[in-house]
Amino acid sequence: MDGTQKSISYFIFEVGEDTFSVPVLRVINVLEWMKATPIPETPAYLEGIVNVMGELLPVIDSQVKFGMEKTELSGDSCILVLDIHSDKETYKMGLIVDKARDVIEVKENEIAGVPDMGLELNPDYVTGVINREEEVILLLDIDKIFTQKEITEIKKAKENQKD
Amino acid sequence: MGNEQFKETFKEEAQDYLNSIEENLLGMEKNKSDSKAIDNIFRGLHSLKGGAAMFGFNRVNDLAHQMESLYEKLRNKEMSPDDSLISLTFRSVDIFKALLKADDRLEDEQAYKQTLEKIETLLTKVEGENGETGKTKDSVSKSDLTTYYIYFNPSRDVLDNGTNPLYLLDELMNLGEGEVFVKTHDLPPLHKMDPTRCYLAWEVLLVTEASEEEIREVFLFVEDESKITIESLAKENLLSRESVKKELQQVTDDRNISVEKLKGYAAEKHASPRPTAVEEPSYEKQSIKVASSKIDELINAVGELVTYQSQLSMLSTQMQNPQLEEFREGMEKLTDRIREVAFDISLVPLKTMLLQFRRLVRDLSHEQGKEVVFYTEGEDTQLDKTIVEHLYEPVLHILRNSISHGIENEKERLEAGKNAHGELRLKAYYSGPEVHIEISDDGRGFDFEKIKNQAVKQGLIDPGEDVSQAKLLEMTFKSGFTTTYSADGVSGRGVGMDVIRSTLSQISGDVKVHSQKGKGSAITLIIPLTLSIVDGLMVSVNNRHFILPLTVIDRIETIEASRLKKHNRIISLKGESIPCIPLFFDPGSDNGGQGSYPTIVVNYDDTKYGFVVHKVLGNSQVVLKSLGKYLEGLKVFSGGCLLGDGTIAFVVDVRRFIEEKKEESKTK
Amino acid sequence: MPKKVLVVDDSESIRDVVSYTLRNEGYEVALAEDGDKALDKIRKEKYRLVVTDLYMPNMDGMELIREIRKLDDYKGVPILFLTTESQLDKKKEAKQAGATGWIVKPFSPEKLLKALKKVLR
Fold first, then answer.
1. HEC secondary structure over B73-97
2. What is the percent of chain B with per-residue pLDDT over 70, rounded to a whole number?
């Protein structure tokens, strides 16, 4: 292995039976799970809004968003406050995950491309795969997951409506 | 503390008075017999005077006093208003403004004097030789110790007005030392006694440095209806004399003090050194500029504080600990105060800005020989102070343009089949996470030919190019594109459209133009709402809270569930057919459907709509918070807010909500 | 328990001065900008003292005083009104309406407290 390889810190967390990661720099905060206030007429994956030190933060349920079966909350559930970059601006989003694990250092050459098949998840959401001790960690492209366009099109996705 | 600290508030307030005076003057100009306008001006001057005197603006006070006298005559119909009086008042308003700005220093002494003289002449003309007498102030000189005899017999019904005679006696004793003897001789037998009457009288021997004047002042509020005697017995402390003490022991309920006897005792004077008054330090009140991000932070922090406060309250109620309860009470008051102050710091209603524009419209239209009626709407829309500051220039420019270029002269207007007078409208409203300020006129609109020529000249388009009007309008915002308007001395000196846009972009705002040749133009300033406060009606649906802005609410009705049919939601309320929209719930599958629903009737676009809800929770003032960029597409809410207990409520953008519902019914 | 005082004036600066002064003295101060609003508060809560201006939009001070005196709860509660030198003739009218006393504007905090001490302890 080439020791001069650049390494990046990744934040590891679990959703359902899968393990995911995002660059640690994009994780602003990890909050204890709290109940979100649901927003009427929005898709089911949008859990709602939570109050974080007087700021309103939209929160997305990763299970629903990733098309998994929704499970009961565990004591480990938490909200990751993520820094999202869009074309024009940056903003914060909350992502409910089942468990926040740890931070790992990953060298660039450890990251493999996304396989063409074998993923239930929308392949656009994943930028790469890391293999660690027999475990597959999916690298998430959070900017794609939290694209604003989706919400602009909320109205068209009425079948997902909650209210 | 000194009054200095309040000077700034006074100045701001004085501005309001002046604005109101100006506004009413404009009304008076149209209708000279407008007695309400005269009353309002009078009141404005009166308040201005009161405050000015209090905060050391003596020149403002003097001028306001004189003006007030004039308006008093007007009110009493001792004289009638004419143009010269109106001009004189406008003139005074300008002088007041200058004085306030310069902390009562005169910049233009001549103008001040002339105005005062003019008023004086007018006044003397009306009242003949009966000039006002100047105020005289009593100077109280203090003497050395004096012993006074005081008899105080209040009227029977002294208690009715909330006076407590004992307080007065206390106050009296605070002036020095002495003895009080209560007189009960008028006391009726118990069964005849009315506890709300006062049957008592008092005799007091008081040794004090105070003057008789000061003693009398103690009884200021009751002197008209009480029997009061104050008599100086000796220039010494008689109470220190044994003979006097003995004499006083003889005094009983019905045996009075013998004034004559006491007067007989005399002794050498004793002087006591008086403490020297300590000069209070005066504090300079300065206004400071604070970064809006800090105010944001403050508001957020206050929001948090309120949340914690209500949690504390809940906890305290549960625990029923008196000590905690006391603590909670104190905290609650403090929190309220902090919240009020924080809100205050950050917001001003648009009104504060609008009034000065009224005057501008008047002056400009006079100057141009055009009659222009200026309508404003949404004056109560609240905006961040710093934002308002940024709006002044752009609005000024737009109004100028409208009056000098947009609105035609009377002849041209009549030829075009329009009213002789031009109409200028300024309308402010909340829209999504923004405030919109729309300034429109019914003038000739933008000259697209001219814009096109200019665009060609500046190389922005090719001569033969087919360019849409919208695009042409957009070009007027290009830097340096100012020659759209001829330099006629009015708007030529102002800023161009490009400057309007850049000014707005400084506050993350934007500007849009619509114009129709011959019909007029509308320029909309779009301003972000980062700090805005919404005065709203809180409602709940399925235990979720929503806020509807009060500005659009017409009234609240109740409709029976049975009237809310599935396919026809147009309901007749008090003779009006109103489309009623359930707010985020389906009445069909609603268990509350048995009874009735409160329905909030709103006004939008001159049409009424009903918002059907589960519960109306009452008025609420909330800090509007953005739901974040991610939810930008969610137009039905202007944002969210935190309620006292930390609950999140959504602020409904009524305009957008109705538009969306309209869209929906179209696609059905 | 601090004593609750209601200050009614349409002028913010006057309200500020009065409330600042009174709060410094340990009173608890509630504010209203006209008679209507004052009456709303008065009906909800018992104040130990009302200080009101005479000239105000909506309900003026004189009417407010009359209205307050109609309330059983407020029979013996002192009411002070603010007045100016030029309105001294109003004193009589106000007293008949039920006012306890008055404070002449302009006033210093000392003057205000002095008047207050006459009617409230």
1. HHHCCCCCCCHHHHHHHHHHHHHHH
2. 83
Domain that holds residue C115: 4-119
Q: For residue range B177-212, what is the model confidence (pLDDT) as tens digits?
A: 888 888 887 888 777 888 788 888 888 888 888 888
The CATH H-level superfamily of B4-127 is HPT domain (1.20.120.160)
Contacts of B625 in chain A (CB under 8 A): 54-56
Chain B residues inside the 8 Å CB shell of A58:
627-628, 630-631
- Using the predicted structure, report yes or no on whether residue A156 has a pLDDT greater than 80: no
Would you call B1 and C20 a contact, using CB atoms and an 8 Å cutoff?
yes
Q: How confident is the model at residue B433 (pLDDT cuts 50, 70, 90)?
A: low
Query: What residues in chain B have their Cβ under 8 A from chain C's Cβ atoms?
Result: 1, 3, 5-6, 9-10, 12-13, 43, 46-47, 49-51, 53-55, 65, 68, 135, 159-164, 167-168, 170-171, 196, 218, 220-221, 224, 333
In B102-209, alpha helices (H): 109-127, 165-174
**Full DSSP string of B427-465:** EEEEETTEEEEEEEE-S----HHHHHHHHHHTTSS-TT-
- H/E stretch holding B23: helix B4-30
CATH superfamily of A7-160: CheA-289, Domain 4 (2.40.50.180)
- Cis status, amide bond into C106, omega within 30 of 0: yes
Q: What residues contact B447, with CB distance under 8 A and at least 6 apart?
A: B484, B517
Touching chains A and B? (3+ Cβ pairs < 8 A): yes
Q: What is B146-264's CATH superfamily?
A: ACT domain (3.30.70.260)
At B666, the pLDDT band (50, 70, 90 cuts) reads: low
Tell me, what's the pLDDT at A161? 45
Q: Which CATH class is domain B350-528?
A: alpha beta
Summarize the confidence of residues B500-528 as an average pLDDT: 80
pLDDT tens per residue across span B470-499: 778 877 777 666 544 443 433 333 347 777
Tell me what pLDDT residue B270 has.
40
- A104: part of which helix (H) or strand (E)? strand A99-107
d(CA B356, CA B396): 10
Q: Does C44 touch chain B (CB under 8 A)?
A: no
Predicted complex: ipTM over 0.95:
no
Query: Is B534 in contact with B551 (CB distance < 8 Å)?
Result: no
**CATH for the B533-667 domain, from 3.40.309.10, 2.30.30.30, 2.30.30.40, 1.20.1250.20:** 2.30.30.40
Q: How many CB atoms lie within 10 A of CB B203?
A: 20
Residue type for position B186: D
**Tokens, residue C83:** 């007045």
Q: Residue B140 has which token pair?
A: 């109280």
Domain ranges of chain A: 7-160
Contacts of B9 in chain C (CB under 8 A): 12-13, 16
* In contact, A81 and A94? CB cutoff 8 Å: yes
Q: Kindly determine whether residue C119 and residue B50, on different chains, have CB atoms separated by under 8 Å.
A: no
Contact B630, A42 (CB under 8 A): no
- Taking the C-alpha atoms of B516, B517, B518 and B522 in order, what is their torsion angle to the nearest 10 degrees? 40
Look at residue B278 in the predicted model and tell me its pLDDT: 40
